[in-house]
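One-letter codes give the sequence; the fold follows as C-alpha cells. An example follows:
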Amino acid sequence: MLAVALDITKPEQVASAVHQAHERFADIDVLVNNAGYGYRAAIEEGDDAEIRALFETHFFGTVAMIKAVLPGCGLAAAARSSTSPRSGRRWTPVGSGFTTRRPKPPWKG
C-alpha cells in the first residue's frame, strides 16, 4: 500500500504520485479514481469559477490520472479503460472520451 497526498488538478502532483507508485511497485495494475466532491446549486445560481473547479477535478483531473498511468500499463489496460458510463450498452475499445449521453430507458423502446 502507498498513501500519497495528491490534488489531481495539479499536474506536478499527478506525475509525482505515479512516479512514486512505479518506484514502489514497478507496475500499476489498477487505478481507482475516486477524487471528487459535491457542489449544490441551481444551474442559474452556480458560480462559474466553482463549476469550472468541479470539472477540473471530476473530469480533467480524472483524465490526467488515466493519461499518467496508462503508458505503464500496456495496451491491454488501455483497451479496457473507461472514463464514464458507456453511451448505451455497447462497449468499444475506441472513443474513450467522456460522454454525457445517457442510454435510452427500456420503457421507451
User: Anything to note?
Assistant: The first helix runs from residue 11 to 25. The chain has one domain: 11-108.
